[in-house]
Amino acid sequence: LALGHGLRGELRYREPLSLHTTWRVGGPADLFYLPADNQDLLRFLQQLPPQEPLIWLGLGSNVLVRDSGIRGTVICTAHMLAGLNHLGACRWHIDAGASCAKVARFSAREDCSGAEFLAGIPGTLGGALAMNAGAFGGETWALVERVTTVDRYGETRQRLPHDYRISYRHVDAPAGEWFLSAIMRLHKGGSDAGALRIRALLDQRKKSQPIGLPSCGSVFRNPPPGADGQARYAAQLIDAAGLKGMSIGDAQVSEKHANFIINQGKASAAEIEALINHVQAHVAQMFDVQLQPEVKILG
Ligand SMILES: Cc1cc2nc3c(=O)[nH]c(=O)nc-3n(C[C@H](O)[C@H](O)[C@H](O)COP(=O)(O)OP(=O)(O)OC[C@H]3O[C@@H](n4cnc5c(N)ncnc54)[C@H](O)[C@@H]3O)c2cc1C
Predict the structure, then answer these.
(1) Burial class for 78, CB neighbours closer than 10 Å (0-12, 13-18, 19+)
(2) Sequence-separated contacts (24+) of 44-47 with Cβ below 8 Å
(3) CA distance 102 to 98
(4) Are 295 and 64 in contact, with CB atoms under 8 Å apart?
(5) What pLDDT does residue 139 have?
(6) How many Å apart are CA 171 and CA 105, to the nearest integer?
(7) In the sheet that 177-185 helps form, which strands lie side by side, from edge to edge?
(8) What are the beta bridge partners of residue 65?
(9) How much is the average pLDDT of 184-192?
(10) Cβ(235)–Cβ(279) under 8 Å?
């Protein structure tokens, strides 16, 4: 690729994606770009050959990158495209690479509430928009007023929530567009209670999840309610199937939270994927429920 005219970001070749995913696995990306800012990103996209495969990554907390890596270009928004501006009246302009934790913290500081649930989600706003990330009853898209997207030619667009089909941990977006930023509308006031809520939610997480060990959070989405109308939880089904603690190589179903798979040290993406398939097959056989992965498998 002949790239570089006037670019100010960092272009890396054969970058190991294990350095950029919370599972700490994943082979290399042919090209890995860390844009200096939004303008630089648009220029990079304008220079990218149209046939070049393109993948976006935030903090890599919801992806399983295969060991063979990614043939094509990965754009990483985390850390660089991380601006966050209070527009007044608890409306916020937030760049895609801002971490969810930062959104929760900064908004609470300006006495805005509603984003507390983002505090424990270890991803970026871009990833949260792509996944409709949520926790403890809150969901990302419930806070979105509008978003700015960019296509692979560097053209930007303004879009409204009704341009998307949004559901539980799933967003149907126009093909070939990615999120650059969003305007989020929070509630005025309530941040004292919000700060307490953040602390309580983080404590609750620490008690119920293997925080600190490499994982990607919940591997499977919760299935829809059963014929009796009762809510069903992926973690409960996996636990009931007796799979807690089961391991393939260094990949293990967490003893603490059955919907987490942890990398105990030297797991490969292939081991993690084999364990995902095993859990899926076993739960299907025992309960006739087809669990769907929430994590995106790339490569
Ligand atoms: C310990 C732990 C706890 C977790 N708890 C929760 C939880 O409570 N609730 C929850 O919902 N999730 C949870 N997750 C999963 C994860 O943090 C979220 O899905 C998060 O929103 C992913 O953000 P990311 O920046 O890491 O995205 P990545 O993993 O980098 O990417 C995820 C997907 O989004 C796409 N993407 C990334 N950036 C953009 C962009 N700018 N435009 C378009 N597409 C983009 C990627 O291509 C990929 O398909 C948890 C993960 C961990 C490790």
Answers:
(1) buried
(2) 44/3, 44/7, 44/9, 44/75, 44/154, 45/150, 45/151, 45/152, 45/153, 45/154, 46/153, 46/154, 47/3, 47/5, 47/7
(3) 7
(4) yes
(5) 97
(6) 25
(7) 84-88, 91-95, 177-185, 144-151, 156-159
(8) 298
(9) 92
(10) no
Residue 133 in contact with ligand 1 by CB distance below 6 A: yes
Q: Nearest-CA neighbor of 18 among 248, 259, 264, 268?
A: 268
Q: Write the pLDDT tens digit of every residue in 6-63.
A: 899 999 999 999 999 999 999 999 999 999 999 999 999 999 999 999 999 999 999 9
Condensed to tens digits (0 to 9), the pLDDT of residues 127-170 reads 999 999 999 889 999 999 999 999 999 999 999 999 999 999 99
The best mutation among 95, 131, 211 to test binding of ligand 1, ranked by most ligand atoms within 8 Å of the C-beta, falls on 131
Sort strands 177-185 and 144-151 into parallel, antiparallel or unpaired: antiparallel
3 state SS of 284: helix
Active site residues: 169, 218, 294
